Amino acid sequence: MIMLLPCAAQQVIFSxxxxxxxxxxxxxxxxxxxxxSINNLYMSNGADYRITSEENSGLSKFIKDRAYAVRxxxxxxxxxxxxxxxxxxxxxxxxxxxxxxxxIYFFAQPYGxxxxxxxxxxxxxxxxxxxxxxxxxxxxxxxxxxxxxxEETGRAELVTTEFMCDLLADTPELLASYKAEESExxxxxxxxxxxxxx
Length: 198
Fold this sequence. Notes:
This protein is an alpha+beta fold. 34% of the residues lie in helices and 28% in strands.
């Protein structure tokens, strides 16, 4: 199932991470966001969203191959093509993101045993090495965790329980609430990021 999200108002393309952090981008008006299906993710991996310009194939190619991020009204998407986590590459296409307190957080499949350890079903076969990680990741195609982009290196870092506890340390009520859930799933982490963003 393909879902096209119509976007008309403010659409901004950021060419680099520095441009995104500085909020310096180019405004356009012809973009559409397509959520990729689970079957598509199984077949070609990569991130959850495809962003294109139906009226301009050159712009579509630029967005796919060279743009770092796109803001569609209030929604932000980062191009996973340029982001790595340890030795893993997130693949092509875009992931949903948030800017919270000047940092960029995004949601993608869990890669590696650390990222997927709290999400794996205990019945999942666990093999060592990159083959085992790839099998585990394919079994977690529907799961999402949160990553934060390191502004200096451009690489992704997993948002762990410890990271969240540090992040929420100045908000005791949120910290206590998070500790009651203590999950690294994207849904839980996003809920607290949104409260910090207010």
